[in-house]
Specification:
InterPro entries: Ferrochelatase, Ferrochelatase_C, Ferrochelatase_N. It comes from Niabella soli DSM 19437. One of its GO terms (molecular function) is ferrochelatase activity. With 343 residues, this protein is α/β, with parallel strands linked by helices. The protein folds into two domains: 174 residues, Rossmann fold (3-Layer(aba) Sandwich), CATH 3.40.50; 154 residues, Rossmann fold, CATH 3.40.50.1400. The protein contains eleven helices and eight strands. The strands form two sheets. A four-stranded parallel sheet has the order 2-1-3-4, with helices on both faces. A four-stranded parallel sheet has the order 6-5-7-8, sandwiched between helices. α5 links the parallel β3 and β4. α6 crosses α8. The relative contact order is 0.15. The mean pLDDT is 97. It binds the ligand C=CC1=C(C)c2cc3[nH]c(cc4nc(cc5[nH]c(cc1n2)c(C)c5CCC(=O)O)C(CCC(=O)O)=C4C)c(C)c3C=C and fe (ii) ion (2 copies). One fe (ii) ion binds next to α8.
Length: 343
């Protein structure tokens, strides 16, 4: 038996809700060339001169609205997920964040302390869908730390699991209790990305956003196409839940900057929906497996306010899977399948 360890990796949060800590976090996040993909100097001027000075105080207020006594919900829930998974496996499970702490080095060190002769590490980016600003940057960051430290163990990565039956089942079952009461529409709200990132990630350079209905036509671009992958997740979950096409729709949230991002925009759709006779709305955010600022503040708090202020009557936010038992089982299955590859 090969000696195997596991590292779960999520995005990360500021250390506290102080403007100073939020600035530090945003600086690391937005200076990532896979998030703001502009030449370094332009990115530096944009982030330091324009985005961060305005965004950090606003984001700090937003974090204050959802912060828990134990810390950032994203970090607390990721640790709970680590613990829940650890209960189900003898493999050592550690946690890392892409930005902030715990760093990849801290996670590798913790793993080596528990298993000094570890031979392979299974990295689980906690993102169901591929995007260069989430999945890819997480993987590259862990690979860089692995290389810089000359670790002898092998690093294997769990691929995007957006259509994996165990993930789809866990997501659908975590949503089912919230769909028992009468509702007009279910909105799948995914984290948005710039359209440019979709074009960049298309290895064929001629399919995504260039062919009509590209997301529904077979292509070699799909393993790295965020829009295709989120669309498939929505379709599979809706099917599993027995929903008709007229009962659900999809949108993209958390837009930053002026470049064109994927459409429709959740923030634009929420106040429009009541005028389209959608008075009872249920919202789910499947690009996040753990609740965080973008779900708890933007969707559960602000989204509700906006929808209700524009004539909505009932707004139900479905929490992320967090530590749902089926999700923990699915995670273990994903890890075991990756361990078995190339054996
Ligand atoms: C789910 C995957 C994510 C993708 C894809 C993603 C892309 C992306 N994000 C920004 C800018 C921001 N995102 C912020 C918060 C945030 N983003 C994700 C996930 C993805 N981002 C999560 C899980 C979180 C929450 C972090 C937490 O502490 O709870 C923020 C910071 C907060 C804020 O000011 O809103 C920014 C900024 C860009 C530009 C981008 C793609 C290019
Ligand atoms: Fe984000
Ligand atoms: Fe595509």
């Amino acid at each position: 038996m090969r000696k195997t360890g596991v590292i779960l990796m999520n995005l990360g949060s500021p250390d506290s809700t102080s403007v100073k800590d939020v600035k530090k976090y945003l600086d690391e996040f937005l200076m990532d060339e896979r998030v703001i993909d502009k030449p370094w100097l332009l990115r530096f001027l944009l982030v330091r001169g324009i985005i961060n000075p305005f965004r950090a105080p606003k984001s700090a207020e937003a974090y204050k609205a959802i912060w828990w006594d134990e810390g950032s919900p994203l970090i607390v829930l990721s640790k709970q997920l680590q613990e829940a998974l650890q209960q189900k496996t003898t493999l050592p499970v550690e946690l890392s964040m892409r930005y902030g702490t715990p760093t990849p080095e801290a996670a590798y060190t913790a793993l080596l302390n528990r298993m000094p002769d570890v031979e392979e590490v299974i990295l689980v980016p906690l993102y169901p869908h591929y995007a260069m600003s989430s999945f890819e940057t997480a993987v590259e960051h862990m690979k860089a730390a692995h290389k810089n430290n000359n670790y002898a163990f092998r690093l294997k990565v769990v691929p995007p699991f957006y259509k994996h039956p165990a993930y789809i089942n866990a997501l659908a079952e975590s949503m089912r209790p919230y769909l028992q009461e009468d509702f007009d529409q279910l909105l799948f709200s995914y984290h948005g990305i710039p359209e440019r990132h979709i074009l960049k990630a298309d290895p064929t350079k001629k399919h995504c956003m260039q062919v009509e209905n590209c997301c529904f036509k077979a292509s070699d671009s799909h393993p790295t196409c965020y829009r295709h992958q989120v669309t498939i997740t929505s379709e599979l979950v809706a099917k599993k839940l027995g929903l008709k096409k007229e009962q659900w729709q999809q949108s993209y949230q958390s837009r930053l900057g002026r470049d064109p991002w994927l459409l429709p925009n959740t923030q634009v759709r929420l106040p429009q929906l009541p005028k389209e006779q959608v008075k009872k709305l249920v919202v789910v955010c499947p690009s996040f497996v753990s609740d965080c600022l973008e779900t708890l503040e933007e969707i559960e708090l602000r989204g509700k306010e906006d929808f209700m202020a524009h004539g909505g009557e009932q707004y139900t936010y479905i929490p992320c899977m967090n530590t749902h038992a089926l999700w923990v089982d699915a995670l273990l299955q994903l890890i075991e399948e990756t361990m078995d590859k190339d054996r």
